[in-house]
Amino acid sequence: MKRLELRFVAGVLVLAAALMLAAQASAQTDALPSWNDGPAKKAIVEFVQTTTTQGSPKFVPPAERVATFDQDGTLWVEHPMYSQVMYCLDRVPAVVKAKPELANVEPFKTVLSGNREAIAKLPKDDLFKILAATLTGMSVDQFSAEATKWISEAKDPRWKRPYTKLTYLPMQEVLKYLREKGYKTYIVTGGGQDFVRVYSERTYGIPPEQVVGSAGGTKYGYDSTGKPFLTKEPKLLLNDNNAGKPEGIHLMIGRQPHVAFGNSTGDQQMLEYTKAGDGARLAMLVLHDDAKREYAYGPAHGLPDTKVGAFTQALYDEAKKKGWTVISMKNDWKRIFAFE
Amino acid sequence: MKRLELRFVAGVLVLAAALMLAAQASAQTDALPSWNDGPAKKAIVEFVQTTTTQGSPKFVPPAERVATFDQDGTLWVEHPMYSQVMYCLDRVPAVVKAKPELANVEPFKTVLSGNREAIAKLPKDDLFKILAATLTGMSVDQFSAEATKWISEAKDPRWKRPYTKLTYLPMQEVLKYLREKGYKTYIVTGGGQDFVRVYSERTYGIPPEQVVGSAGGTKYGYDSTGKPFLTKEPKLLLNDNNAGKPEGIHLMIGRQPHVAFGNSTGDQQMLEYTKAGDGARLAMLVLHDDAKREYAYGPAHGLPDTKVGAFTQALYDEAKKKGWTVISMKNDWKRIFAFE
Fold first, then answer.
1. N or C: which end of chain A has fewer CB within 10 A?
2. Quick check: B196 contacting A, CB < 8 Å?
3. Cα A24 to Cα A20, A21, A31, B69, distances in angstroms
């Protein structure tokens, strides 16, 4: 290389380094632009800085940086009904077509009637019958194809947008920020593991192997050509709610998280388990108190809670007592959705 | 910067790049130095090159690069008895001390007698009783502490070395080679998931969240100070052998592997499942045919197989029929252990 070329190469390298430093500095000044300044944002930023700065007394080695997130109501909208329940209800006509004798049997009869009020009033046992009929009995690949198709077409009734567009922008920023700082981000959901895995990677940047959810057994078998496949069985291996969350985390991850985000009593044990570990641990709860931009439910709000968990007054008191940070959607979030 | 400094910086950069290229080239010439040239080594190297070279028709995107490995007999010695069974037998005196009434009850009585022949003859049901008594009923942390202590002290009777030193060097090279090429390496073992997780990271470079094994349920609870903990329950969630291996892979990883290594009929379904995927897939079986350097068992050899799986003549024929590569320890491995 001639001297001029060398000078050019060196110049480009210095410029590139300067640009990288500038980009880094800008990222450090605000990794969470959709958050208002306040105790919630402060708690996240301080925790991340303390645990990822080499030499800090609360430094966490990269291999141990595990962050777990509830999904429904924590990463995306759960009101008025979990999107997976919408999926199951939408699948009922196809199930009845394959088994016409179900048309006059409850709860399928009520679902087919389309009477929303009656459907909303179905007891839990009937809901389980619908889940079993629509989530099991087919091959893993067939389920995945059907769920992929549905999630790309179905729309939330209020915003008229795909459910995957109803993720909370501030939480997407937290996921990204944690990953940039070496945290492995996991979804730990009461929802079906196979269902969430269908869209987790493109929706949250979380690969299927980092989705822990309620999981049924599968059965290995062969098709007529001898090709092996797995069939989804109506046998629950993990009910990933309440105590099932720490149990599921142990089963699937085998490490106690350093970070956990939830929004209901269904997440309480995951937050307790997270905080019970040594060193710095972060536990946060999303409070739905923004009736205008999203919904307001939980303590002191009119709307009923969703069926599995609830943000009760007791949970609120527990959070205050245990040092969990409550995130007010109304006060802490500058923006809620990316499309706004 | 002055011109001389710039020239110096540019020179250093050029030198560094040259060194990196040289290192890469050297790695490419032999990533598997403990393997003799032959069909097995060739199959591995060709598979890795084909699936990780951008533009190759069989290129596999990094996110989908999943490689699964059986442990006992595939990554380390399983003869004459699985090390986890040794652990359980060694724990029996402590269990009987805590519950003296077991001293005169079978199979504990036989284990306490120390009569090796009688112990080896215990039926499967009795073995399960020993596993349940020694692997469950304590907290996850207590089990982990006991297993960690044992694995650091216990020694294999033939080589008089810790079990963790009895891993196969050629397989360690395969793990490392695959990881360098962007594959995520998983252990998929019939052994206990909690047991293997205790040493997997420092023994194989495989973190606990990438260990899939036979797994029992846990129960969430609180100690007298209100601190939460998990108790290991005698309830089997996943029997990770035979059909349980693909079922466990779906449960814990959610992706069909591109690579699978095994050594017995207990791995057959994992290999079938791996090969059933589209594109390039690699399935390999370790054949123990080296009585001198390790052991010889399986087809046409005198020693009995281990209890869970076996390398039967039928498995050998299946491998030939399905295009799985059989690794002869005697012919394909230049060295077996790192300490040799």
1. C
2. no
3. 6, 5, 10, 39
Q: Which residues pair with B214 in a beta bridge?
A: B192
CB within 8 Å: B218 and A247: yes
**Under a CB-based contact definition with an 8 Å cutoff, are residues B75 and B338 in contact?**
no
Q: How many CB atoms lie within 10 A of CB A121?
A: 10
Question: CA B125, CA B106: separation in Å to the nearest integer?
Answer: 11
| Chain mean position to CA B206 | 9
> What residues in chain A have per-residue pLDDT under 50?
none
Query: Of B337, B334, B338, B305, which Cα lies nearest the Cα of B34?
Result: B334
Q: Which residues of B touch A252 (CB under 8 A)?
A: 209, 252
CA dist., res. B119 & res. B322, Å (int): 38
Instruction: Tell me the β-bridge partners of B186.
Output: B68
CA atoms in the 13 A half-sphere facing the CB of A264: 24
ω into residue A246 within 30 of 0, thus cis? no
CB proximity list for A173: less than 8 A, separation 6 or greater:
A31, A32, A33, A34, A35
Burial of A137 (0-12, 13-18, 19+ CB in 10 A): middle
A201 interfaces chain B, CB cutoff of 8 Å = yes
Nearest to residue A215, comparing CAs of A186, A184, A197, A192? A192
Residues of chain B numbered 225-264 and touching chain A (CB < 8 Å)? 227-230, 237-238, 243, 246-247, 250-255
Whole-angstrom Cα distance, residue A20 to residue B229?
44
Judge whether A208 is closer than 8 Å to chain B, CB to CB.
yes
Mean pLDDT confidence for B286-300: 88
pLDDT in tens, B175-232: 999 999 999 999 999 999 999 999 999 999 999 999 999 999 999 999 999 999 999 9
Q: What is the model's pTM?
A: 0.91
Q: Is the pLDDT of residue B254 over 80?
A: yes
Q: Does A251 sit within 8 Å of B220, measured CB to CB?
A: no
Q: Which residue of chain A comes nearest to B207, CA vs CA? A: A63
Q: How far apart are the first and last CA of chain B?
A: 53
The total number of residues written for chain A in this structure:
340
